[in-house]
Amino acid sequence: MKPKHLLITTLLLLVLLVTSGVAFAQDDWLPPDVAGAATQSRPRPITAFSDEEIIIDYYFDRVPQGQTGLVQVQTLDERALAQVQVVAFGRTVSFFAVDGEGFYGLFAVNMEQAPRDYPITFEVTFEDGEQRTVETMLKVSLGQFIRQDVFIPEDRLYLVDPVIERNEFARLGSILANGIPDPLWRGPWIYPTQGRRASPYGIFRTFNESVPARHTGWDMSVPLGTPIQTMGAGQVAFAGQLDIRGNYVLIDHGGGIFSGYAHMSQIHVTRGQRVSQGQIVGTVGSTGRSSGPHMHWEVIVNGQWVDSYQFAEMWMPTTDIELVHNDG
Ligand SMILES: [Zn+2]
Predict the structure, then answer these.
(1) What would the pLDDT profile of 3-41 be if each residue is shown by its tens digit?
(2) What contacts 130, CB < 8 A, 6 or more positions away?
(3) 46-141: what CATH class?
(4) CA–centroid distance, residue 156 to ligand 1 (Å)
(5) Is the full-model pTM beyond 0.90?
(6) Cα 137 to middle of ligand 1, angstroms
(7) Which segments of the chain belong to CATH 2.60.40.1930?
Protein backbone atom coordinates (compact mmCIF):
# COMPACT_ATOMS: atom_id res chain seq x y z
CA MET A 1 0.00 0.00 0.00
CA LYS A 2 1.28 3.45 -0.96
CA PRO A 3 1.86 5.88 1.93
CA LYS A 4 -0.89 8.16 0.59
CA HIS A 5 -3.45 5.31 0.56
CA LEU A 6 -2.38 4.23 4.02
CA LEU A 7 -2.96 7.77 5.28
CA ILE A 8 -6.46 7.93 3.74
CA THR A 9 -7.37 4.49 5.17
CA THR A 10 -6.15 5.53 8.63
CA LEU A 11 -8.12 8.77 8.43
CA LEU A 12 -11.28 6.92 7.38
CA LEU A 13 -10.87 4.47 10.25
CA LEU A 14 -10.40 7.37 12.67
CA VAL A 15 -13.56 9.09 11.39
CA LEU A 16 -15.49 5.80 11.81
CA LEU A 17 -14.18 5.36 15.34
CA VAL A 18 -15.01 8.91 16.35
CA THR A 19 -18.53 8.87 14.89
CA SER A 20 -19.41 5.48 16.43
CA GLY A 21 -18.02 6.75 19.74
CA VAL A 22 -20.32 9.78 19.61
CA ALA A 23 -23.32 7.59 18.76
CA PHE A 24 -22.49 5.37 21.73
CA ALA A 25 -22.24 8.33 24.10
CA GLN A 26 -25.64 9.68 23.03
CA ASP A 27 -27.72 6.55 22.58
CA ASP A 28 -26.40 3.83 24.82
CA TRP A 29 -25.40 5.71 27.88
CA LEU A 30 -26.19 3.98 31.17
CA PRO A 31 -25.86 5.71 34.51
CA PRO A 32 -23.07 3.99 36.48
CA ASP A 33 -25.30 3.57 39.54
CA VAL A 34 -28.87 4.69 40.16
CA ALA A 35 -27.92 5.42 43.75
CA GLY A 36 -25.69 8.38 42.95
CA ALA A 37 -26.62 11.00 40.39
CA ALA A 38 -24.66 13.85 41.94
CA THR A 39 -21.20 12.45 41.40
CA GLN A 40 -19.54 15.82 40.88
CA SER A 41 -17.26 17.13 43.58
CA ARG A 42 -17.59 20.70 44.83
CA PRO A 43 -16.40 22.95 41.99
CA ARG A 44 -14.13 25.91 42.65
CA PRO A 45 -16.44 28.92 43.05
CA ILE A 46 -16.04 32.18 41.12
CA THR A 47 -16.47 35.29 43.26
CA ALA A 48 -19.11 37.56 41.71
CA PHE A 49 -18.97 40.17 44.50
CA SER A 50 -17.05 40.77 47.72
CA ASP A 51 -16.37 43.57 50.20
CA GLU A 52 -15.60 43.60 53.96
CA GLU A 53 -19.14 42.32 54.82
CA ILE A 54 -20.41 40.01 52.09
CA ILE A 55 -19.04 37.51 49.59
CA ILE A 56 -21.16 36.17 46.70
CA ASP A 57 -19.82 33.06 44.92
CA TYR A 58 -21.08 31.51 41.66
CA TYR A 59 -20.53 27.78 41.09
CA PHE A 60 -20.48 28.39 37.31
CA ASP A 61 -19.10 30.93 34.90
CA ARG A 62 -22.26 31.03 32.76
CA VAL A 63 -25.62 29.26 32.78
CA PRO A 64 -26.80 27.85 29.42
CA GLN A 65 -30.52 28.17 28.59
CA GLY A 66 -32.54 25.55 30.49
CA GLN A 67 -29.84 24.85 33.07
CA THR A 68 -29.48 25.68 36.76
CA GLY A 69 -26.63 27.52 38.48
CA LEU A 70 -25.79 27.40 42.20
CA VAL A 71 -24.94 30.58 44.14
CA GLN A 72 -23.62 31.03 47.69
CA VAL A 73 -23.85 34.15 49.91
CA GLN A 74 -21.67 34.38 53.02
CA THR A 75 -20.95 37.05 55.61
CA LEU A 76 -17.40 38.14 56.33
CA ASP A 77 -18.06 40.06 59.56
CA GLU A 78 -19.20 38.63 62.91
CA ARG A 79 -22.92 39.18 62.26
CA ALA A 80 -24.77 36.14 60.91
CA LEU A 81 -27.07 36.37 57.91
CA ALA A 82 -30.83 36.19 58.65
CA GLN A 83 -32.20 36.10 55.12
CA VAL A 84 -31.18 36.34 51.46
CA GLN A 85 -33.68 37.23 48.74
CA VAL A 86 -32.69 37.61 45.14
CA VAL A 87 -34.38 39.05 42.09
CA ALA A 88 -33.26 37.28 38.92
CA PHE A 89 -35.02 37.54 35.52
CA GLY A 90 -37.80 39.59 37.19
CA ARG A 91 -38.60 36.82 39.68
CA THR A 92 -37.86 36.59 43.40
CA VAL A 93 -35.75 33.60 44.42
CA SER A 94 -35.56 32.52 48.07
CA PHE A 95 -32.21 31.24 49.29
CA PHE A 96 -31.85 28.47 51.90
CA ALA A 97 -29.48 28.42 54.89
CA VAL A 98 -26.85 25.71 55.29
CA ASP A 99 -25.18 25.39 58.71
CA GLY A 100 -21.88 27.29 58.78
CA GLU A 101 -21.95 27.99 55.03
CA GLY A 102 -24.30 30.98 54.81
CA PHE A 103 -27.07 30.81 52.21
CA TYR A 104 -27.36 28.98 48.88
CA GLY A 105 -29.77 29.61 46.02
CA LEU A 106 -30.51 28.38 42.52
CA PHE A 107 -30.69 30.37 39.32
CA ALA A 108 -32.98 28.40 37.03
CA VAL A 109 -32.76 29.74 33.49
CA ASN A 110 -35.80 29.34 31.23
CA MET A 111 -35.04 27.37 28.04
CA GLU A 112 -36.18 30.41 26.01
CA GLN A 113 -34.25 33.07 27.99
CA ALA A 114 -32.30 35.19 25.48
CA PRO A 115 -28.53 34.57 25.77
CA ARG A 116 -26.92 37.73 27.23
CA ASP A 117 -25.82 39.26 30.55
CA TYR A 118 -28.52 39.89 33.18
CA PRO A 119 -28.41 42.04 36.35
CA ILE A 120 -29.11 40.12 39.57
CA THR A 121 -30.20 41.97 42.73
CA PHE A 122 -29.33 40.50 46.14
CA GLU A 123 -31.24 41.69 49.27
CA VAL A 124 -29.16 40.51 52.21
CA THR A 125 -30.53 40.85 55.78
CA PHE A 126 -28.19 40.53 58.79
CA GLU A 127 -29.32 39.16 62.18
CA ASP A 128 -29.46 42.71 63.61
CA GLY A 129 -31.95 43.69 60.90
CA GLU A 130 -29.56 45.72 58.75
CA GLN A 131 -30.12 45.26 55.02
CA ARG A 132 -27.72 45.43 52.11
CA THR A 133 -28.52 45.52 48.42
CA VAL A 134 -25.88 44.19 46.05
CA GLU A 135 -26.05 43.88 42.28
CA THR A 136 -24.13 41.31 40.22
CA MET A 137 -24.30 40.10 36.62
CA LEU A 138 -25.19 36.67 35.27
CA LYS A 139 -24.24 35.39 31.82
CA VAL A 140 -26.81 33.22 30.01
CA SER A 141 -25.44 31.26 27.04
CA LEU A 142 -27.09 29.36 24.19
CA GLY A 143 -28.60 25.97 25.10
CA GLN A 144 -27.77 24.06 21.87
CA PHE A 145 -31.07 22.19 21.54
CA ILE A 146 -31.68 19.77 18.71
CA ARG A 147 -34.84 19.18 16.64
CA GLN A 148 -36.84 15.98 16.63
CA ASP A 149 -39.92 14.65 14.83
CA VAL A 150 -42.35 12.71 16.99
CA PHE A 151 -45.21 10.57 15.72
CA ILE A 152 -48.24 10.11 17.94
CA PRO A 153 -50.75 7.32 17.07
CA GLU A 154 -54.03 8.42 15.40
CA ASP A 155 -56.18 7.67 18.47
CA ARG A 156 -54.13 10.10 20.59
CA LEU A 157 -53.68 12.78 17.93
CA TYR A 158 -56.05 15.17 19.80
CA LEU A 159 -53.31 15.46 22.48
CA VAL A 160 -51.07 17.56 20.21
CA ASP A 161 -53.59 20.45 20.53
CA PRO A 162 -51.64 23.45 21.95
CA VAL A 163 -54.72 24.41 24.07
CA ILE A 164 -54.50 21.09 25.95
CA GLU A 165 -50.79 21.75 26.56
CA ARG A 166 -51.48 25.32 27.81
CA ASN A 167 -54.22 24.11 30.18
CA GLU A 168 -51.95 21.43 31.60
CA PHE A 169 -49.15 24.00 32.18
CA ALA A 170 -51.69 26.30 33.92
CA ARG A 171 -52.86 23.48 36.19
CA LEU A 172 -49.29 22.54 37.13
CA GLY A 173 -48.37 26.23 37.49
CA SER A 174 -50.88 26.75 40.31
CA ILE A 175 -49.42 23.74 42.18
CA LEU A 176 -45.84 24.95 41.63
CA ALA A 177 -46.70 28.43 42.92
CA ASN A 178 -47.75 26.98 46.30
CA GLY A 179 -44.72 24.89 47.13
CA ILE A 180 -43.20 24.13 50.53
CA PRO A 181 -40.71 26.96 51.28
CA ASP A 182 -38.15 24.97 53.31
CA PRO A 183 -36.03 22.18 51.76
CA LEU A 184 -37.28 18.63 52.46
CA TRP A 185 -34.50 17.10 50.35
CA ARG A 186 -31.14 16.28 51.82
CA GLY A 187 -29.03 15.55 48.78
CA PRO A 188 -27.25 14.32 46.77
CA TRP A 189 -29.96 13.40 44.26
CA ILE A 190 -30.41 9.94 42.71
CA TYR A 191 -31.67 8.88 39.26
CA PRO A 192 -35.35 7.81 39.20
CA THR A 193 -34.46 4.61 37.34
CA GLN A 194 -31.65 3.08 35.33
CA GLY A 195 -32.10 3.43 31.59
CA ARG A 196 -30.89 4.71 28.27
CA ARG A 197 -31.20 8.47 27.74
CA ALA A 198 -33.61 8.56 24.83
CA SER A 199 -35.02 12.01 24.04
CA PRO A 200 -33.21 15.05 25.49
CA TYR A 201 -34.60 17.97 27.47
CA GLY A 202 -35.37 21.23 25.67
CA ILE A 203 -35.46 19.88 22.13
CA PHE A 204 -37.73 21.48 19.53
CA ARG A 205 -40.30 18.80 18.70
CA THR A 206 -42.71 18.61 15.84
CA PHE A 207 -45.65 16.29 16.42
CA ASN A 208 -46.88 14.44 13.30
CA GLU A 209 -45.11 16.96 11.04
CA SER A 210 -47.31 19.86 12.17
CA VAL A 211 -47.52 20.95 15.82
CA PRO A 212 -44.36 22.36 17.49
CA ALA A 213 -43.60 21.97 21.22
CA ARG A 214 -40.59 22.09 23.54
CA HIS A 215 -39.59 19.05 25.58
CA THR A 216 -39.80 19.83 29.33
CA GLY A 217 -37.81 16.83 30.55
CA TRP A 218 -35.66 13.86 29.55
CA ASP A 219 -37.12 10.62 28.25
CA MET A 220 -35.51 7.48 29.57
CA SER A 221 -35.96 4.29 27.61
CA VAL A 222 -37.11 1.72 30.19
CA PRO A 223 -39.30 -1.38 29.89
CA LEU A 224 -43.00 -1.32 30.81
CA GLY A 225 -43.58 -1.93 34.51
CA THR A 226 -40.11 -0.85 35.72
CA PRO A 227 -40.36 0.79 39.17
CA ILE A 228 -39.74 4.57 39.33
CA GLN A 229 -38.17 6.02 42.47
CA THR A 230 -38.10 9.62 43.75
CA MET A 231 -34.85 11.50 43.14
CA GLY A 232 -35.06 12.98 46.63
CA ALA A 233 -37.23 13.26 49.76
CA GLY A 234 -40.35 15.40 49.58
CA GLN A 235 -44.11 15.51 49.58
CA VAL A 236 -46.48 14.37 46.80
CA ALA A 237 -47.92 17.56 45.26
CA PHE A 238 -49.89 15.78 42.53
CA ALA A 239 -50.70 12.13 41.80
CA GLY A 240 -53.22 11.45 39.08
CA GLN A 241 -54.08 11.64 35.42
CA LEU A 242 -53.20 14.48 33.04
CA ASP A 243 -53.89 14.69 29.29
CA ILE A 244 -50.29 14.95 28.09
CA ARG A 245 -48.30 13.55 31.02
CA GLY A 246 -50.73 10.64 31.50
CA ASN A 247 -50.45 9.06 34.96
CA TYR A 248 -48.24 11.63 36.64
CA VAL A 249 -46.56 12.13 40.02
CA LEU A 250 -45.16 15.51 41.04
CA ILE A 251 -42.94 15.64 44.13
CA ASP A 252 -42.40 18.89 46.05
CA HIS A 253 -38.84 18.72 47.45
CA GLY A 254 -39.25 22.11 49.16
CA GLY A 255 -37.27 25.28 48.58
CA GLY A 256 -38.68 25.71 45.05
CA ILE A 257 -37.56 22.27 43.72
CA PHE A 258 -40.06 19.83 42.17
CA SER A 259 -39.59 16.59 40.22
CA GLY A 260 -42.18 14.99 37.93
CA TYR A 261 -42.54 11.45 36.54
CA ALA A 262 -44.90 10.98 33.59
CA HIS A 263 -46.66 8.35 31.41
CA MET A 264 -46.75 5.79 34.26
CA SER A 265 -48.75 2.57 34.02
CA GLN A 266 -49.44 2.61 37.77
CA ILE A 267 -49.23 5.23 40.53
CA HIS A 268 -48.19 4.07 44.03
CA VAL A 269 -48.57 7.32 46.04
CA THR A 270 -51.30 9.82 46.92
CA ARG A 271 -51.32 13.62 47.16
CA GLY A 272 -50.02 14.99 50.47
CA GLN A 273 -48.02 11.85 51.28
CA ARG A 274 -44.42 12.31 52.50
CA VAL A 275 -41.89 10.32 50.50
CA SER A 276 -38.29 9.41 51.23
CA GLN A 277 -35.52 9.42 48.67
CA GLY A 278 -35.69 6.31 46.49
CA GLN A 279 -39.29 5.50 47.40
CA ILE A 280 -41.20 3.87 44.53
CA VAL A 281 -43.87 6.28 43.25
CA GLY A 282 -45.11 4.22 40.31
CA THR A 283 -44.19 2.08 37.31
CA VAL A 284 -43.16 2.85 33.73
CA GLY A 285 -45.98 3.00 31.20
CA SER A 286 -47.17 4.73 28.05
CA THR A 287 -50.17 6.78 29.22
CA GLY A 288 -50.91 10.31 27.92
CA ARG A 289 -49.08 11.81 24.92
CA SER A 290 -46.71 8.89 24.42
CA SER A 291 -45.81 6.64 21.52
CA GLY A 292 -44.44 3.72 23.57
CA PRO A 293 -43.33 2.76 27.11
CA HIS A 294 -40.76 5.22 28.50
CA MET A 295 -40.27 7.47 31.49
CA HIS A 296 -40.44 11.22 31.14
CA TRP A 297 -38.46 12.76 34.01
CA GLU A 298 -38.70 16.49 34.58
CA VAL A 299 -37.36 18.91 37.19
CA ILE A 300 -38.89 22.31 37.94
CA VAL A 301 -36.81 24.86 39.88
CA ASN A 302 -38.33 28.16 40.97
CA GLY A 303 -41.12 27.69 38.43
CA GLN A 304 -38.82 26.87 35.48
CA TRP A 305 -38.62 23.50 33.71
CA VAL A 306 -34.88 22.80 33.68
CA ASP A 307 -32.56 20.05 32.39
CA SER A 308 -33.23 17.21 34.86
CA TYR A 309 -29.89 15.42 34.31
CA GLN A 310 -27.84 18.61 34.62
CA PHE A 311 -29.73 19.53 37.79
CA ALA A 312 -29.43 16.11 39.46
CA GLU A 313 -25.74 15.76 38.54
CA MET A 314 -24.55 19.21 39.61
CA TRP A 315 -22.88 19.61 42.97
CA MET A 316 -25.18 20.88 45.72
CA PRO A 317 -24.67 21.31 49.48
CA THR A 318 -26.32 18.88 51.87
CA THR A 319 -29.23 20.51 53.66
CA ASP A 320 -29.28 20.05 57.40
CA ILE A 321 -32.71 18.49 57.79
CA GLU A 322 -33.91 15.14 59.04
CA LEU A 323 -34.68 12.50 56.46
CA VAL A 324 -38.39 11.92 55.97
CA HIS A 325 -39.30 8.34 56.87
CA ASN A 326 -41.13 6.06 54.53
CA ASP A 327 -44.77 5.74 55.57
CA GLY A 328 -46.19 3.73 52.73
ZN1 LIG B 1 -40.74 13.34 27.51
Answers:
(1) 556 555 554 444 443 333 333 333 333 433 444 566 678
(2) 79
(3) mainly beta
(4) 15
(5) no
(6) 33
(7) 46-141
